[in-house]
Amino acid sequence: MAPWPVGPAARRDDPRLNPECSGMSPPAPSSFASEALNPDGFLVLRPVGDVPECPEDFTCEYANPSAQVLLGDSLVGEPFLASRPTWRALRATWGATRVTGLRSEHLFRWDTGSGVHTLRVRAARARDGALYVWLSDLSWEVRASVGAMPEQDLLVAALEHLPDAFVALDARFQVRRVNRAAEQLLGRPRDQLEGQVLWDLVVDEPDVPLRQPLQRALVTGQPTEFETSPGTSQQTLHVTAVPVASGLLLYLKNTSRQHRGEEALRRASALFQAVMQGCPDALYTKNLEGRYTRINAAGAKLMGRGVEEVLGHTDEELWPDEAHASMAHDREVLAFRRTLTYEEAQSGQPGRVWLSTKGVLRDEQDQVFGLFGISRDISERKRMEEALRQNEARLQQALAAASVTLFDLRMPEGLLRWEHDAARLLGQEALAPEEPLAALLSRVHPEDRLSVAERLHHGTRLPGEVTLDFRVLDARGGVRRLTLWGRARAEDGRVQRIIGLLVDMTRRSPESPPGMVAA
Length: 519
Hints:
Blueprint: E1 41-48, E2 57-63, H1 65-71, H2 91-100, E3 104-111, E4 116-125, E5 131-137, H3 140-147, H4 151-160, E6 165-170, E7 175-178, H5 180-186, H6 190-193, H7 198-202, H8 211-220, E8 224-228, E9 237-244, E10 247-254, H9 256-278, E11 282-287, E12 292-295, H10 297-302, H11 307-310, H12 315-318, H13 323-336, E13 340-346, E14 352-362, E15 368-377, H14 379-401, E16 404-410, E17 415-418, H15 422-426, E18 434-436, H16 437-443, H17 446-459, E19 464-473, E20 479-491, E21 494-504
Antiparallel strand pairs: 1-2, 1-5, 3-4, 4-5, 6-7, 6-10, 8-9, 9-10, 11-12, 11-15, 13-14, 14-15, 16-17, 16-21, 17-18, 19-20, 20-21
InterPro entries: PAC, PAS, PAS-assoc_C, PAS-like_dom_sf, PAS_4, PdeA-like_PAS, Sensor_kinase/Photoreceptor
Enzyme class: transferase
GO molecular function: protein histidine kinase activity
């Protein structure tokens, strides 16, 4: 790999800086080792915030030794602008560099408290969105102190602060140098690592995936990269081995967390696929243009199409005459950014009705990139509901024509619930849907009131038929003759309710059965 561009040698057409160039990925952290030799300060900054052209701050991911001398030791992992207010003047300039990809160069005066430094600040956008910043101190005091630092010391400092583990091996695979990350990875201090054979530190068996690639690299002189899980370790290591004259330079990265994340993602994806394919309802996702990006087989079948016939198409393309309602609901979900439930009717013979729940899909940055939907065919249920409604309407018409109403007397609360048309039958202007039994008794003719109360009380003792003939006074003082037929129903051995009919017998002869009006 060519060295990372240093100072003025960095070119805008370098593919590692310019995303419009070749598809090279940004260099690994170990590639920044070459910047350790740069007498200019070098920073890798990561923007913080949702506004690309003017980030809230930048987090420092790497600082070479010169930058640490110039700016202080506490750089990596800290917000850069928050602890250096005077540097906020560069925030907009750096934001523009990230947005346009054009490199920027400015002179910047910085008062450290102990003196004023004049800096030439150059910034370039990396392919992964980071910002690379070079700091040239034009004040002779700092430049003299940095220039006096031996190159070997700079290289050692750079290796020591690498985020990946670094191990230098001699030709006998004995450890000659490690950095702090290697101490943490191998679980030992460097005085217990240096001088030891690598195999004694990480593996027990001689024939393991780690030994053979390293031996091959040492013999052939060719760099190599591979992954391995040494011995009984649960860790997965990504190993980069670079042959040098004295042996091998190893860069070890623990990728166990990445592999666990990939495995968890694979299992979650498999579970999601199992749920999608096993669900009898239509499950689907759409992008922001309304095109189906995923749908299960059951959903495609309910639409009368195959899965491949649905994917990539919009509702308007699939059924242009009926898509307006579904598309309007999609727009509403995306506009309000919340989950909503609709009934969506589809015309045709026979027409279909869908109960659809839709919500937005968000990425890791909480940005909406589409919507999901769960749709159930409720056509049969809607037909049954409509049939029930029509039957109920016909029943009410029949009851009204026969001067009959339904009642439900719940005991021991003594609450009486009337069905439709009870007010007309009792000769009242209006009745509450539910009223106390005492309200009915108050309308009973005084001569019949006691017998009605006694008969109802007797009917609540034992389950069975209840029949009453009595008179009531209507709202104008007229007398109406009524017959009550009911059945007392028991629960747990006690009568809890009486359900039945109340028939207006005023216009019928005493011998007429219910529904027969005397001529």
